[in-house]
Amino acid sequence: MSKRILLVEDDESISEIVEKYLRSEGFMITTVNNGEAAVKQNQSSASVFDLIILDIMMPKLDGLEVLRIIRETSAVPILIMSAKDSDVDKALGLGLGADDYLAKPFSLLELSARVKAAIRRATQYSREQQLNEDVIEIGDLKVDVTNFMVMKGKEHIKLTAKEFAILKLIASNQNRVFTKQQIYQLVWEDEYYGDENIINVHMRRLREKIEEEPSNPRYIKTLWGIGYKLEGF
Fold first, then answer.
1. Are residues 108 and 168 in the same domain?
2. pLDDT at residue 166 greater than cutoff 70
3. Among 88, 108, 130, which residue terminates a domain?
4. Same domain for 21 and 119?
């Protein structure tokens, strides 16, 4: 079955070239030219995409805001395609949950290779998660999702409900960065009003329980100014 791609690009000439090329590669393409349309298209129950190609500089909602909104509810692979090629933009885009970054101008061959790689990684990860959905293993940590238990080697680690929910969230999405806002909204299931202290406290306590050296963590990494991720092994 052909993979479905949502192409979000406001430059009509680039959109037409990319759409035509990816269609020739066997993909089904839906195109929109602004951020608001991208969010609506992704939220539509009739639209299930295997990949989103997302420009940053767009009208109505920019690409990073679209990325943030989509990442609140979806893990669909997202490839940023933008002329903004600074390290800051790359870090911000990937930190908000993008899977890859392609700077304009680019070759269509490279675009195709990155699209296929992102879809392949997501498909492989999904299969692995289905096979191991009950117990997640990272290093010497075992997170038993079904029984709400965490083992570190042979030691049983006692976590509060919120600590376990945070660990489960980031362990289930290894190497993906979550902002504090995303963690709060997904774990507390409430609106985030910028109170970082509650997240900081829970992260500190979680690290004290699972890390050998909480001040030099092996598992939960901080990306300053962006958020946290659990680093896979």
1. no
2. yes
3. 130
4. yes
